[in-house]
TrEMBL record, chain A:
Gene Ontology molecular functions: ATP binding; ATP hydrolysis activity
Similarity comment: Belongs to the ABC transporter superfamily.
Protein name in UniProt: Peptide/nickel transport system ATP-binding protein
Origin species: Rhodovulum euryhalinum
Record domain ABC transporter: where: 8-257, 278-527
Automatic annotation (TrEMBL), chain B:
Pfam families per record: BPD_transp_1, BPD_transp_1_N
Keywords of the record: Cell membrane, Membrane, Transmembrane, Transmembrane helix, Transport
Listed name of the protein: Peptide/nickel transport system permease protein
Protein species of origin: Rhodovulum euryhalinum
Intracellular or extracellular location(s): Cell membrane
BP-aspect Gene Ontology terms: transmembrane transport
Protein family according to the UniProt entry: Belongs to the binding-protein-dependent transport system permease family.
Membrane topology: Multi-pass membrane protein
Length: 545, 327
């Protein structure tokens, strides 16, 4: 077959009345050839996921519907097909891989059943042949012990394996087109790299066309043949990957690429003379098993095992690790939101963990937290000024003074003071995270513990929030304990880094040294897994001026 | 789920249930003692009065002259051997009467709950799939009407319509007394008698299941795995049966277990109105007549039934939700 597998011409998708713009997608042209990976890149709200929905004809109609254009799949216009024929194409000729492998699989059906369903829907294979094919597919996506995974429920296997199952499911009928919608976003870096490799490998074997939707230019650098950049529903740039990545033309693409944290750590600063504001010693936390699964006794899990570190005044200490490494537990223990089993946390020379409830309340003003999800961590029923002023008021500040100060703080985090009387849902993610930072600053703390504060944000917003954090840190002489899974972010902001694995520190040191010369195999593996590590974003600031 | 696992779980639950039931018994015993009047007062009242010496003698005979603690101890010592004592109103052992009455109540409860559950779930699912349409509005309004109508009113209106005006259904009782039906004729006779009570009792609970199921289905439909199934090419029927229903049923099953005890309470009204010889009606009369032993026996039986039903619900839940392990 000659010609592209998928050819989208002038696709327009209409949004319901009252949305921020009339069209989610205003004239997209895109083609995917067999054996090619085309990356559709854009920030949240750019319309990239709706494109996938339009191809599959699974848009939430009638609110969101295709308003014009054509989607040609192997020469046939999908938009003109009756639903019956479309149903036959879905899962058979066009398959889709979703972002969140936990929720994309039915929790009540076994893995085998769910892959089998595709075969049952589209083939006349008998039970035995189907089972053989499912096992073959599980083996193809490199799942160890396919037979036991076949009978397992999704919650019984790991996140990476779930995504492998998802891939096996989408590929078992050798579709001509695979739509991968952010398939690695929810995964750890090391797992992400494995999955990207797997997609590449299978694609070469099956010669399918892949439309890969992502927001991450690192992933683009890793996998794309061609790139299409979307902004607010407009296609702003397209071309071969190397060209778009290294010599972007459109200002939006340039802005996006500039916003990516470079893997170049800041110059080491000297904190020898600075006083220690936060000292953790021998922190240990064990989680008791929550009952035996199927009668078998489960081991207790050591989330944090004998962990010690110092944080100097004005310093930023990064805590880096994959999910399950215990990094979030650390942040909860040092703020005493979670009780440690043993150990001490000295804040201002006083052990926070030994404080009585009354002393603890007093101590809380010295150490504050910024949380990951700015949507969930702000009370939706309170006005912004009350959210910010609540802490000081609880600690005895006069409410009027506290509210006036809240307005000053909003200015400090570069929000308009008019924001004070509005509610959190009226703000974007980045603005909400600024409010979260202002809330933490209201207590005039010495230490701020930030747990993945930018991982829910788009890359351009992420860069702004990181810059704000660094700026505030220097102006207010704050110390930051910065928990993150993203090594790029850590490299940009942290003076020193602790690498955690299974509750233990495997390596720690000055960021620049650690990135240049990782000693521990796990650190080496982590660094090697950063998507697009071979690609250095071009320095666009100089030629932009 | 292996059988040995279920058995060991059942054993553990049984052991946990013992103190619960004992506590219920002690609590209700003391509560009933706090209420003014006793069996003797009721008996004497029925007789139209007696002299003080006779009343004293009756009290001593029934052991009611002893301090409350002694009475409690004597009762508890008997109940742990499953000896329910003697009913001074019916002049029969309590156990015998309970046994006679249990069948009717279980039949009524079983039929009305399963009816309410099945119809509620189906209507709820239909309403959710056609959310905000005319069908949905009609189903939801109907549910609201049933929910808002008190069961005694519903019962009386049904009697008025179907028995008095139309003459289709019998007014009350569980069977035609002088007919002495046997075999299938008997079954048919009982079924005819149970239609109205079952309907009256189930219509109210039906609306609970309907609303919960509708909300639950609407929630599950939005979930990612339903979208995955669509992307696999599954049709609407398949989506509903394999992907939506099983997940949407979970909260409804929880409610089923919780509501069983409420239905026991609701059956008091319905049994009284339709003159069904069940536990509910018995409980009502026992309270009037201060038949202490009978009342305690009924409460004991109900406690056991609720414990068993909760256990069965948990089993069902574990069967339905693969993520839940028995422990």
């Amino acid at each position: 077959m000659t010609g592209p597998v998928l050819d989208i011409r002038g696709l327009r998708i209409a949004l319901p009345k009252g949305a921020d713009r009339p069209f989610a997608l205003a004239g997209l042209d895109l083609s995917v050839n067999a054996g090619e990976i085309v990356c559709l890149v854009g920030e949240s709200g750019s319309g990239k996921s709706l494109t996938a929905g339009a191809i599959m004809r699974l848009l939430p109609e009638p609110h969101v519907h295709v308003a014009g254009g054509a989607i040609l799949f192997e020469g046939r216009d999908l938009l003109a097909l009756p639903e019956r024929e479309m149903k036959a194409i879905r899962g058979d000729r066009i398959a889709q891989i979703f972002q969140e492998p936990m929720t994309a699989l039915n929790p009540q059906k076994t893995v085998g059943w769910q892959i089998d369903e595709v075969l049952r829907l589209h083939t006349r294979m008998d039970r035995k042949a189907r089972r053989a094919r499912v096992l073959e597919m599980l083996d193809l996506v490199h799942i160890p012990d396919p037979t036991s995974v076949h009978g397992a429920y999704p919650h019984q296997i790991s996140g990476g394996q779930r995504q492998r199952v998802m891939i096996a499911m989408s590929l078992c009928l050798s579709p001509r087109l695979v739509i991968a919608d952010e398939p690695t976003t929810a995964l750890d870096v090391t797992t992400q790299l494995q999955i990207l490799k797997l997609i590449r490998e299978l694609q070469q074997k099956e010669d399918a066309g892949i439309l890969f939707i992502t927001h991450d230019f690192g992933v683009v650098a890793e996998i794309a043949d061609r790139v299409v950049v979307l902004s607010q529903g407009e296609m702003v740039e397209h071309g071969p990957a190397a060209e778009v990545l290294n010599a972007p033309q459109h200002p939006y693409t340039r802005a996006l690429i500039t916003a990516i944290p470079a893997l170049i750590p800041p110059k080491p600063r000297n904190f020898q003379g600075a006083p220690v504001v936060l000292r953790a010693q021998g922190l240990t936390k064990t989680f008791a098993p929550r009952g035996g699964l199927l009668g078998g006794k489960r081991r207790t899990v050591k989330a944090v095992d004998n962990l010690s570190f110092d944080l100097h005044r004005g310093e930023t200490l990064g805590v880096v690790g994959e999910s399950g490494s215990g990094k979030t537990t650390v942040s909860r223990i040092v703020t005493r939101l979670l009780e440690a089993d043993t150990g001490a946390v000295e804040v201002n020379g006083k052990d926070l963990l030994a404080c009585s409830p009354r002393e603890l309340r007093e101590m809380r003003r010295h150490i504050q937290m910024v949380f990951q999800d700015p949507m969930a961590s702000l009370n939706p029923r309170k006005r912004v000024q009350d959210i910010i002023a609540q802490g000081p008021i609880v600690h005895g500040t006069d409410p009027a003074t506290a509210r006036a100060r809240a307005r000053d703080l909003l200015e400090l985090v570069e929000l308009s003071p008019a924001a004070a009387t509005r509610f959190p849902h009226e703000f974007s993610g980045g603005q909400r995270q600024r409010i979260g930072i202002a809330r933490a600053l209201a207590m005039e703390p010495k230490v701020i513990v930030a747990d993945e504060p930018v991982s829910a944000l788009d890359v351009s917003v992420q860069a702004q929030v990181l810059k704000l954090l660094a700026d505030l840190r220097d102006r207010l002489h704050l110390s930051l304990l910065f928990v993150t899974h993203d090594l790029r972010v850590a490299a940009q902001l942290c003076d020193r880094v602790i690498v955690m694995q299974k509750g233990e520190i495997v390596e720690s040191g000055v960021t620049a040294d650690l990135f240049a010369d990782p000693r521990h195999p796990y650190t080496q593996q982590l660094l090697a897994s950063i998507p697009g590590r071979g690609w250095t974003p071009p320095d666009l600031k100089t030629d932009a001026a | 789920m292996h059988l040995s696992q279920v058995l060991s779980y059942a054993l553990r639950r049984l052991l946990q249930a013992v103190p619960v039931v004992l506590l219920i018994m002690v609590g209700t015993f003391l509560l009933l003692k706090m209420a003014p009047g006793d069996t003797v007062d009721a008996l004497v009242g029925d007789m139209g009065g007696a002299d003080a010496a006779y009343i004293e003698k009756l009290r001593a005979e029934y052991g009611l002259d002893q301090p409350v603690w002694v009475q409690l101890w004597r009762y508890m010592a008997k109940i742990v051997q499953f000896d329910f004592g003697w009913s001074f109103v019916y002049e029969k052992p309590v156990a015998t009467i309970l046994w006679e009455r249990l069948g009717t109540t279980l039949l009524l409860m079983g039929s009305s709950l399963s009816l309410a559950f099945t119809i509620g779930v189906v209507l709820g699912a239909v309403a959710a799939r056609r959310a905000y349409s005319l069908t949905d509005n009609m189903i939801s309004t109907l549910g609201l009407v049933f929910y808002a109508t008190p069961s005694f009113f519903l019962s009386l209106m049904m009697i008025l319509l179907f028995s008095v005006k139309l003459g289709w259904l019998p007014v009350g009782g569980v069977k035609t007394i002088a007919a002495f039906h046997t075999g299938w004729a008997h079954v048919w006779d009982v079924a005819l008698h149970l239609i109205m009570p079952t309907a009256a009792l189930s219509l109210i609970y039906l609306s609970f299941y309907l609303r919960l199921m509708r909300a639950s289905v609407l929630e599950v439909v939005e979930l990612d795995f339903v979208r995955t199934a669509r992307a696999k090419g599954a049709g609407e029927a398949r989506l509903m049966v394999h992907h939506i229903m099983r997940n949407a049923l979970l909260p409804v099953v929880t409610l089923l277990g919780l509501q069983f005890s409420t239905v026991l309470g609701g059956s008091v009204v319905v049994e009284t109105i339709f003159a069904l010889p069940g536990l509910g009606q018995l409980a009502y009369q026992s309270v009037i007549q201060r038949d202490m032993n009978m009342l305690m026996g009924i409460i004991f039986l109900c406690a056991i039934i609720v414990v068993i039903v909760n256990f069965l619900t948990d089993l069902l839940y574990a069967r339905l939700d693969s993520r839940i392990a028995l422990r």
